[in-house]
Amino acid sequence: MKIGIITGASQGIGYALAKLLSEKGYTVYGISRSGFELAGVTSIKADVTDFETLSAVYQSIYEKHGKIDFLVNNAGMGISGSIEDTKLEDVEKIFKVNFNGVFNSTKAALPFLRKSKPSKILNISSVAAEFPIPFQAFYSSTKAAVTAFSDALLNEVEPFGISVCTILPGDIKTNFTKNREKNRIDSLEYKNRVEKSLAVMERDEQNGMTVEYAARVIYKVIKKKRTPLHKTIGVKYKVMIFLKRILPRKLVNKLIGSIYGFKKL
To answer: What residues contact 95, with CB distance under 8 A and at least 6 apart?
Structure first.
């Protein structure tokens, strides 16, 4: 029986993945700030920004089962708005959750994952890490940091039998859209473009893939013996990332700007 931990499991991808894994016979622990109810899944209230609590929780799970087979770092948040209008405390907040949270959870789990080899860490990044989106600069930055962190982490822990995969989902229909924190627009120079950009972003998300589809893809990665370094979810996004590799970087950035920044090519 496989033992797994998922952070940010109360909704969205985390909830769908916890449900699927439970149905497949896995023992699943779901970490969230608010707690949740899901048959077959043990819900634990904990904040990913609190390392000491996570460490104690992961130790108790290891002591109960004698192993932890995988960790999925999924907890995250979003903010939107222009860089000029964003306050430092908001930047610190999103990095504290999206990046520090991954670090805290990983650091807390590593002593037990090393004793449980072979084991896995799956970090949920985003296609936005590959395509930094205007008026989503800090979300894109946190996810790019998660991707770089994961790549470096693999080379540190692979000798211990731990594999690491960065998951890069594209647009997904979740409550993330509704929960995104929108910065106050103080600069009228940005107002029209920010509002248009967010409208496009929210439309794409609400027309995006289902959380169930994303969960199935992640489940297959958990099952694989040979873990990919990166796993992009969605054919369209795989094509986009391939094109990014062969097209001039400046052209790609201009294309993103024309879609989300409302600037002419």
So the answer is: 138, 141, 142, 145
**pLDDT, tens only, 185-213:** 667 788 888 887 777 767 767 777 899 99
Annotated catalytic, 143?
Answer: yes
> What pTM, to 2 d.p., does this model score?
0.90
**CATH class of residue range 3-260:** alpha beta
- The question of whether 139 is a catalytic residue gets the answer yes
Residue of 139, 190, 237, 260 marked catalytic: 139
Residue from 80, 125, 140, 163 carrying the catalytic annotation:
125
Per-domain boundaries in the chain: 3-260
Average pLDDT over residues 171-191: 68
Q: Which residues pair with 49 in a beta bridge?
A: none
- What is the C-alpha to C-alpha distance for residues 138 and 84, in angstroms, rounded to an integer? 12
With contact defined as beta carbons under 8 Å apart, do 198 and 80 qualify? yes
In 85-234, alpha helices (H) = 88-98, 100-114, 137-157, 176-179, 188-206, 211-223
Give the active site residue among 143, 190, 237, 260: 143
Active site residue: 2, 10, 32, 237, which one?
10
